[in-house]
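Notes on consecutive records. When two proteins share a document, each keeps its own sequence and its own token line. Never mix them. Below: protein one.
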Amino acid sequence: MIGYVTVGTNDIEKSAKFYDELLAGMDAKRFMEMDTFIAWSNDPAACGFSITKPFDGNPASVGNGVMVALMVDSSDKVDSLYAKAIELGGTDEGAPGARSDNFYAGYFRDLDGNKLNFFHMT
């Protein structure tokens, strides 16, 4: 159903470097790129993730209550990708751990303040 998810950025180069390094841990690569938009995917048939400078020319801002959840194949992968996000300058929004009997997640904010998580269904 979802084709791709986009978050705003005010510094496309800095944000692109953050996501190039972070999403490499999911084997994701850039598959679309323009001056103000970059998209990554690890499977052309699956949902992609992208960053953009807002089309209206106004500064990008964080959506209150908005979060992007990125599914991975193990709890260890949640741990390593969450740690990479923090190492790259992201901020903690909830360390990796079990949130229910079968849901394991780590929450963080990117360099622009967008909230994301990596999760695994156990």
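Protein two starts on the next line and is unrelated to protein one.
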Amino acid sequence: MDKPNKTANSTVEISHPKRQIFDNRLGQSRLSYLMYQLFDITKKKREFLIIILFLLIISAIITPYPMLARWFGFMLASYSAIANDSIQTIGTFIASNTNKKWWYLWLFIGLIFVGTVTYSWVVYGGDVSYQRLTEKGFSEAPTNFKFLQLFAPIVLLILTHLRIPVSTSFLLLNVFATEPIAIYHVLQKSFYGYIIAFCVAIIFWYAFSKIVGNYFKAKPWKGWIVFQWIVSGLLWSVWIMQDASNIAVFLPRKLNVWELLLFIGFIFFGIGVLFYLRGDKMQKLVNEKSGITDVRAAMLVNLVYMLILFYFKNVNNIPMSTTWVFIGLLGGREIAISFARKNLSKRKKMLQQSIKFIKRDVNHAFIGLLISITLAFLVNSVIRQMILDFLKKFFN
């Protein structure tokens, strides 16, 4: 009886070290792969990582100095917000005008920006946000800054470089909110915007595809280009009315003449850089959408999007995520185009691809929301207390 037991025990003693060696090798293999991936990314993105490190160092140095921090934060926010949101505003405009010189497009969009912001500054007594920052929770201009408030636009730059479209409203506004209800109202309005845009897009594009879809297969009439430029300009202007608050949140709520000139001048030339880069990293996400490079499709996307944003602009002055509206619009459009296919196999394949796009865009939207709430939790004591109270009630 003792001998079998001894054999069994010896088997355990021999097999266990072998399994442990195998597990260790497997763990080392995975670790080596991760380290290789990290090294590869670092090597490919070396210049970008150096820029990010440089920006982080500057942010840490100037945080104690409100005047410097205010304008440095504004400069970071202005480029990062417009670059990330370029997919939804000037992305289709760039995609359908690749044959035009970049500075033609820049002057057109840049001058519209100057006119739109100047109008708000004159009419609303120095306010460049179209009163979006007069709402409760955002009406108080920051008098001192924390490092994570300057870190927020740097995070946005990183996400933009990775081609992840996120809500700039959540990411940049939440870290400055002084009232918990302000975040709730922004989130609520953005959610409604996504649902309405998704439903409107399905109804509009399904009917459009059925009625005049074949017309788009022919070569576009030259007059479509004129319509597309007009609609793109209107969309850009309405987007500024809605999202200028994301950039101006760093600044005083009333700007004097010199502050206005600095505000306009920096963004105007930043837009020029973006057009020179042909939309930079985010442009690929526009080009992969169904037929979006066609001037007629681009014009219709911009038109419907502009009308939805204009509607929400007039509902109230609460800021909202235009990104959520845009991904809702494109998601509904992709679904409608899929259902409009006559061939059943092609319809099924395209529907699967559309659902894949929608899931990816929604995941990106929630990534931005999660990051913004995390930053707001770390920066803002009011928001931190609200979240802690909610968690206590939820778990109790």
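For the record: The chain has 15 helices and no strands.
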